[in-house]
Every structure is written in C-alpha cells, then in structure tokens.
Amino acid sequence: MEKNDEHLNAEQKMENDQKEEMYPRNRYEVIISGEGLVDFKDIYSRINELKLCHDIEDSLLIQPAYDEDQMKHRVNITDKPPNLPVLINNVDKNIKIDPNNSYLIDLATRYGLVDIERIFLQDNTPTNKLRANVLTLYNYIDLLKNGIYLDLTSMKHTVKASITYAKVCQKCGSINHNTKDCKFDRCLRCGNYDHSFKNCKNIPKCVNCDGSHQSNSEICNLLTNKNLTNNRYTLDILVKESIINSTDDIF
Ligand SMILES: [Zn+2]
Ligand SMILES: [Zn+2]
Ligand SMILES: [Zn+2]
C-alpha cells in the first residue's frame, strides 16, 4: 500500500512509522484507484476478479498481486492521510491562494501540506488564516512545533491544530443537533418554551446538564466533554508531543 510518505527521507519515514504506532487512528481509510479499467464494469468488479484469481480476501493485499497481473490493469491502494487539519496564521489577506500555483504544489513536497485554502468569514471576507491538510503525522508534528516558511509571503508562520468545536442549537440550546434540524424554540437562559432569552429574568438552567448556566455557555461540562471526545485524536498528539501542556489550554 502506498503511504503518502514519498516526500520524506528515510529517517523521517521511520519517525513517521513510529508516530503512527504511538497514535493509532480510530479508523483507517484507503483510496482505491485503477488504471486500464475499461475492460471492467467498475473497480469493484476488478477487485472481485483479483480476489477470485489470486485468492485474496483482504483488499489491502491486492496491490502486490497486480504486479503479477501484467500491469495492464492496475489497482492502486493508497492510505488516506490522517484527518488532522491545520491552520496557518497571519497570511496577508490580499494574497490569492490558487491551488495550481507552483508554490503550493511545492509545499506538498517540503512540508507534506495539501488542500491549502484561505478561510473566509460567512460574509465572504477573507481572513488571514489558511486551512490545509497534512499527508503524514511526521509533517503534522513538525509543522506544529516549528511553523512554516512561505515563499508566498517571504515569512515564517505559526501553524496551529484545527480544533472542531461542538455547536449549540441556537433555537433550543441542545448540543445534540444542528439549529436547522430543530423543531423547538426554547429560552437559551432557562429552557422554558414560552419566551425567548432576551426577556428572561429566570434563574439560568442548562437544557443539556441541568446546571445553573445558560444552555449555550462555554462552562457546560457536557459541552466540554463533547469537545474533548470529538478532538481526542488531535489532543492526544498535542499533549504527548508537549505542543500544549494540557487540554485545559484549549477547552
Ligand atoms: Zn434545538
Ligand atoms: Zn427563560
Ligand atoms: Zn450545561
């Protein structure tokens, strides 16, 4: 299986393998692609054929087999990179981020960075942050610790882990569904159904944990726990690599 680490040197590859063992993912995904597949209905029928001819049960073992299969029909299995998005800070808003720009393509080789894009606000104004994905754990840890030098700006930039924050439903205050899926209007302060929180003088009561705070309060333990769970893989790396002291630094 191809591992997205061709851009690393031998030492870095070894370090990457060690990090992959230290930080196992919940779930591993692969990308299956094919060449010369016109003779087959789709890639699944090709994989089925490989299974029948070569007695392969595990799809991941297909790659060594295709070589014997005379190269005419190729099936490539590539490891999908870890799901660890990063943010690159302080990149001038006026710099256009064009995915075909050779600078950006070069960053895949130098830093293992792909899918680089500008972050825009809801009203379409650009921020000074870029979002990107990394090809390997080695690159992720290296970027968070050492930052990145961009030819685009002739500057060194800090790189941060992108954390996903659980959203609170703006209609009822629940942390378990999106606002657009909500059928209830509740006061975000006390949880009652008959008024909105602007007019509310009641004692705050959270609809999620019954605690004495507003439902959309950052101090809610259930909200914090949900954020910790959703970001567990990222936080585990950040703490063990001493990039942050503890999860309290973030939540
Ligand atoms: Zn709701
Ligand atoms: Zn109320
Ligand atoms: Zn609460």
UniProtKB/TrEMBL annotation:
The species is Brachionus calyciflorus
Q: What is this protein called?
A: CCHC-type domain-containing protein
Residues forming the CCHC-type domain are 168-184, 186-202
SMART domains assigned to the protein according to its UniProt record, in alphabetical order: ZnF_C2HC
Query: A Gene Ontology MF term for this entry?
Result: nucleic acid binding
Signal peptide (residue range): none
Region annotated Disordered, chain positions: 1-21
